[in-house]
Amino acid sequence: MLETLRENILTDVDSEDLRVIIISGPVFSSGHDLKELTSARGREYHMKVFQTCSEVMALIQDIPVPVIAMVNGIATAAGCQLVASCDIAVATEKSTFATPGVNVGLFCSTPAVAIGRAVPRKVVPEDRLEEETLGIAQRVCQSSRPVVALGKATFQRQMAQGRDAAYATASKVMVDNLALRDGQEGIQAFIEKRKPVWSHKPENVHD
Amino acid sequence: MLETLRENILTDVDSEDLRVIIISGPVFSSGHDLKELTSARGREYHMKVFQTCSEVMALIQDIPVPVIAMVNGIATAAGCQLVASCDIAVATEKSTFATPGVNVGLFCSTPAVAIGRAVPRKVVPEDRLEEETLGIAQRVCQSSRPVVALGKATFQRQMAQGRDAAYATASKVMVDNLALRDGQEGIQAFIEKRKPVWSHKPENVHD
Amino acid sequence: MLETLRENILTDVDSEDLRVIIISGPVFSSGHDLKELTSARGREYHMKVFQTCSEVMALIQDIPVPVIAMVNGIATAAGCQLVASCDIAVATEKSTFATPGVNVGLFCSTPAVAIGRAVPRKVVPEDRLEEETLGIAQRVCQSSRPVVALGKATFQRQMAQGRDAAYATASKVMVDNLALRDGQEGIQAFIEKRKPVWSHKPENVHD
């Protein structure tokens, strides 16, 4: 899909007749194919996946024509990153945006490079204060501790870097995240349609 | 006008009695005088215009008293940049903000230095998704391709720099933009009150 | 209080069972104890206060578990900085946020490191344009000129730096601010429950 997107973006990019690109449709709702991310495929393969993804996102900002994201539904993970990487985004009110990777043990560190640069970082809602706060806290507690720790540290680190350095940092972190025991457990659980059982230990799968 | 603004800002700036500056009135609605920007005036003159403009905008942030923009109407191009350069902005609901330089073939690259640092970058509106998206796409297509390409590339580049380096980058780009065949065509068309005929070629007027 | 907060944050921080921290309660409404900031305590003591504060704020972002601010009331000065330093903030509508240090002659330069990185910088309200603008201008004029000048210059400077360098810059500035005649006058007036009489001169208390 990333290669198809890249090919599509590069088609006629230097033609004078290409003036603007509109991206729409189900591409926003798809994240990475988790079956490609099991440890069976190996670290080098994982590195290639996230490098390709980062390259395509950077490409969108580097080509000479404006790219508009037209969103009407769910935009998640790399799909949400794709919206944030476009020059302009137009979305219906029923559209929702999420980076749910942490639920399968893979913190959305590369999406955060684009999203952290596109939207204000703090959200301050209404009156159900304790309910909201505890709800967020519970969602954190249902996640793997080392995955959250890696994601939090990486967010602070990459936000202080330029875009290209930030993508290099975050791409490597995605691979490190996959090598974590909990990174692989989350993906296995997703494939086997069961709830993940986190070790909460910062250990690699091959330690 | 820029020189008058500079003089006004510097008047009594070191006096203990000057404590705050309020800028208001038609100054926000005026961009550059396009007649000053034809190729007849030459590259050096253009460089001076944009350097002076960048210096005045930086000056507003560098003087020791707070500067408040009081806006009640249209703020465009360098006027919009002026609002974004002030320490505080107060505007009525009927106020509008725009950087329409691309319509006359001169992308607002220097205004984007201040605006890109003052407001969030993505806007996500309502339900008329396709209409909105196609409307934006059409406005892009009515612009000169090399002008848009130069503007897009410059935005990404200057946002990764500190303010002073960003203004140096963007000021030079404004001059390069003016040297483009389409940069001069846009300005000539504006002066002659006709629609511009873009070449869409990244060629300089003297090539 | 800062030391207590630091101890609380560090308690069990490396335990696998700690997964999220929620900060709530009156901690947000307390700024620094102004009695600690009189010139009688000396420059070294002041430096220690602001360094400790900056360290605790950075610590919140550097520990491996997410920290949620649960706010239901007034968050001011270092309390407002604390909210901005948390990974996530949830606040009721009755919550208010302010950095009122300038009223006692001590510009909130260290809070601005966190707040300037967490919220968009410009606020554009409604129709009472002149009233609003003049209200802001009057509040500026009721403040000490050298204190405002120091605060404005520091904001521009620290925003161009990385977080840790920004805190080093701002911490030193807080101490310089305290050494100003008007910095001490503001604090003395607060302690003596009278209105401050600003000198508006950029002189140190021991000059």
Automatic annotation (TrEMBL), chains A, B, C:
InterPro entries hit by this protein: ClpP/crotonase-like_dom_sf, Enoyl-CoA_hydra/iso, Enoyl-CoA_hydra_C, Mitochondrial_ECH-domain
Protein name as annotated: Enoyl-CoA hydratase domain-containing protein 3, mitochondrial
One Pfam family here: ECH_1
Keyword Transit peptide: yes
Keyword Lipid metabolism: yes
UniProt source species: Goodea atripinnis
Sequence similarity: Belongs to the enoyl-CoA hydratase/isomerase family.
Coiled coil: none
Lineage of the species this protein comes from: Eukaryota, Metazoa, Chordata, Craniata, Vertebrata
